[in-house]
Amino acid sequence: MKNENIEHRVRSFQSRISIAACVFIGILIGGAFFFFRRIMDPIRQLKSAADRIAKGDLGARVFLKNGDEIKALADSFNYMSDEINRHIAGLTKQGEELRSIISSMQSGLLVLDRNGKIVLCNESMEKTVQASDITGQFYWAVIKDTAVFELIQRIQITKTSESTEVNLYGRAYQCNAAYVMKNNEIIIVFHDITGIRNLGKMKRDFVSNVSHELRTPLTAIKGRAETLKGVKGIISITCR
């Protein structure tokens, strides 16, 4: 009888221990799940916001209510996003200003990469070569002029700056080329000096015409003077 009571108590105690262990394990699992959710949900939000920024949505932000380290991480992420947005906006503004300046240039602008391919040009350059959509083409397919070829080849070898005069499609240009070490690119500016050359020719023609006109009356005067000198000599002989 005593043995049965002891066994009964032992089984009852073991049962209680098992129940307590199950409850404790359940509490642990529930706490772990809650802690996991508490950690993973903000991380998922951060990952989602990072993916949106990577796809170009610079307005993505993460706002958390809890005040732990993850919220501090989210705040740092938001600050980083604001800085990226500000820098990109500044670069975009600078790019627009640069494009506006380039497009408004009266001189033709041409930028070549290390392979001789056109990576940038303006509208004035397209008018100079009488072609459109030349970006992406090789310069020798667009500018068919030996002087320009030789200038670019010299710049590629010497990696310095140089200028020369060239004639394209009946117009004169001051061609200034410079090598950019940082990007291994060549920048060429074509400044139209046709008007200056025509003005110089007009000045030379004017001087030539004026000189001719001045020489003509001087020759006549000299001839008359010699005639008068001869007449004077005849009169002197007659008087004697």
Q: Mind explaining what this structure looks like?
A:
This protein has 240 residues and is α+β, with helices and mostly antiparallel strands. It folds into two domains: 2-95, no CATH class; 105-192, PAS domain (Beta-Lactamase), CATH 3.30.450.20. Helices cover 66% and strands 15% of the residues. It is built from six helices and five strands, in the order ααββαααβββα. The protein has a five-stranded antiparallel beta sheet with strand order 2-1-5-4-3, with helices on both faces. α1 (2-54) packs parallel to α2. It is rod-shaped. The model is unreliable at 231-235 (pLDDT under 50).
* Number of helical segments with 4 or more residues: 6
Oligomer: single chain
Number of domains: 2
Residue-averaged pLDDT, rounded?
A: 77
Q: Tell me the helix content.
A: 55-70%
Broad shape:
rod-shaped
N to C succession of SSEs: HHEEHHHEEEH
